[in-house]
User: Fold this.
Amino acid sequence: MPKLKSQEDILKMRNAGRLAAQTLRHVGQFVKPGVSTEELNTIVHEFIVSHGAYPSPLQYRGYPKSVCTSINDVICHGIPSSKEILKEGDIINIDVTATLDGYFGDCSRTFFVGEHIPEDRLKVTRVAEESLARAILTAKHGNRIGDIGHAIQSYAEKEGCGVVRDFVGHGIGKVFHEKDLQIPHFGKAGTGLKITRGMIFTIEPMINGGDWRAQLMKDGWTAKTLDGKPSAQFEHTFAIVGDGVEILTALEDDPIALRAQELGANILWPTLTSKK
Ligand code: MF3
Ligand code: CO
Ligand code: CO
Assistant:
């Protein structure tokens, strides 16, 4: 059984989560045609360091950069490069993780580059976002981990999309990826560990426009769709509290949090209730 978080852990996770969310919002302003992913990496790195924190991906298991930038058919873990320039019509997931006061906050979203996004990229992005919103309704005390994956998979497959199996959500705290708490984005309702107050974990569905399968590139990090179709991802860090959930990486206007609330989720708002 995974170790549950203390009240102090949760307070500190709110701060780490908020910084990751603010970083993601900040870098989002720079997403436009002509910008390189290396420039986005620098923006993320400097924002996090200037707030007294560390960009968690940097040197994590040998990862060479401060953020992951995954364009079009890249599922996740794309490595920023000065040779990679954003083009009109691209979609790009930016995945920000910050370590603040020893605790990790982890979130990502898929951004549109420019205004004219092809229909298949629009669709997979919409399905990924909606799948996370729907998953949030199941993230509460007394449910099972399999309920989360079931919510995502049943919705995404009904929309004709594929759910990536090779990468899963994870427990998070003073450790980036807790091995004893994994959150698959597929599965059967009513199966798996019981979701319990004091758990903190990410949900981060990677949704493919076609086949769910992934292929790993020779750099050892970049994962792409097998069929070349686009893939999109959204991620938040969640704390199971009371009869609902705190989204530690949601700022007050977060569209996924608002959508989940509209669907009936009981969301507690850390950004409004905690100081600093
Ligand atoms: N942020 C990713 C996640 O959501 C992990 C990135 S690991 C890295 O779990 F090494 F690629 F940065
Ligand atoms: Co992440
Ligand atoms: Co994560």
